[in-house]
Design a protein that fits this description.
By secondary structure, this protein is of the alpha+beta class. Helix content is 46%, strand content 14%.
Length: 390
């Protein structure tokens, strides 16, 4: 019996981590330093050059299957990349400052071949921008039952009326995926997925101001038309297509949160080693040491929970509970870490000289995005109280 276990990354994932880390150190962060503190994009020519390099090193559209032009990484690989790619000012919502491209919504690869080629493959090849319209004001955390936006079939097209909330990138998206109700109200099986064009008439956008630098939109559909051929799957299959994506997305989401927290801790350690107060280095003060140690323990614990969820997902297991635990623990731990690190830096941590205060703002949103902590805890409680054993 082998009792050694395996509590470290396999060598190929370490090589992937080191490749991304070098790319971030040598190319992404130096480019980002030329932009404003709250910027969301690099100059087009700079971004284009970085994206070219990302393709060369094999880190392009990391979630997209290799057969469609992406890197085809599994969940663990996605987590390794997500943690490193978040280590820049805009990294939480624009990994590697956009250098790795934007994966098309994964559900497009559950469509027919014409849809895959027209939308999925072309997005990877041309570096297009996409969006997903699923959340609504009446219940973003329970989309299957709460969706009220309705799509009525009229001959060879669907007529959509309703609204969506918190939709990112729609102002610049070339296409997106819309989830609308075609069945009875409140029926999980009454949701259908569609490809839609955000620039077609019948759509109105209203910008929603948030505490982060990148703003989402409220989207209004008024007699908006979608051709039948742009329906993904059959009527009523929408949530079935979305559910795995919603669960699995929480795992690299957790990893990205850890990335900025790790970067914050490294900044705080460097500061503590050189900053003197009252004739003594901060690093020699026990109160500071304990803040750094508590942060390290938070990060190690959260990383193992995240990797465990990824490992199980890559084995084909149902990871609804593991993904929920990783998402809650990582986002909350990352918030604690950055808060402590700002305290270590003192007034400097509040300035635009370092990215701490931006990370602090944006990490706060992570406890709500991809399902708030309370909903994730509810999912875990349901599992615990069901009596199911490993």
């Amino acid at each position: 019996m082998d009792l050694t276990g395996n509590w470290d990354l396999p060598d190929e994932y370490k090589m992937l981590r080191d490749t991304v880390r070098r790319f971030m150190d040598k190319e992404v962060r130096p480019a980002e330093e030329q932009t404003e503190h709250d910027s969301n994009a690099l100059p087009p020519a700079v971004k284009e050059q970085l994206q070219k390099r990302a393709r060369e090193i094999g880190v392009w559209c990391v979630q997209t299957p290799a057969q469609y032009g992406g890197a085809g990484l599994n969940l663990l690989g996605q987590c390794v990349v997500a943690e490193e790619a978040a280590k820049c000012r805009m990294g939480l919502y624009f990994p590697a400052a956009g250098a790795f491209g934007q994966d098309p919504p994964k559900v497009i690869f559950r469509g027919n071949q014409q849809q895959i080629d027209r939308y999925g493959v072309r997005t990877v090849q041309e570096g297009l921008t996409t969006c997903v319209a699923i959340s609504e004001a009446g219940g973003g955390s329970d989309p299957a039952r709460a969706i009220a936006t309705r799509a009525e079939r009229k001959g060879d097209r669907y007529i959509v009326n309703g609204s969506k909330m918190w939709i990112s990138y729609i102002d610049q998206a070339d296409w997106g995926v819309l989830y609308a109700r075609t069945g009875a109200a409140g029926d999980r099986g009454g949701i259908t997925a569609f490809v839609f064009d955000p620039k077609r008439k019948g759509i109105t956008l209203k910008r929603i101001g948030l505490m982060r630098s990148h703003q989402p939109y409220e989207v209004f559909f008024e007699n908006y038309e979608i051709p039948v051929e742009d329906r993904l799957g059959e009527e009523g299959q929408g949530f079935e297509l979305a559910e795995e994506w919603l669960v699995h997305a929480r795992v690299p989401y957790a990893a990205a949160s850890l990335g900025v927290a790790q970067a914050a801790l490294e900044l705080a350690i460097a500061w503590a080693r050189q900053r003197k107060t009252f004739g003594q280095l901060l690093s020699d003060r026990q109160s500071i040491q304990w803040m750094l140690v508590d942060s390290e323990m938070d990060l190690r614990s959260a990383r193992l929970l995240t990797w465990q969820a990824a490992w199980k997902g890559d084995r084909g297991e149902n990871i609804k509970t593991e993904a929920a635990i990783a998402k809650v623990y990582a986002t909350e731990a990352a918030g604690r870490v950055v808060d402590r690190c700002m305290q270590v830096l003192g007034a400097m941590g509040m300035t635009h000289e370092v990215p701490m205060e931006r990370w602090y703002r944006e990490l706060r949103i992570r406890r709500v995005g991809e399902g708030p902590s309370e909903v994730q805890r509810m999912l875990v409680a349901r599992e615990l109280l069901s009596g199911r054993k490993e």
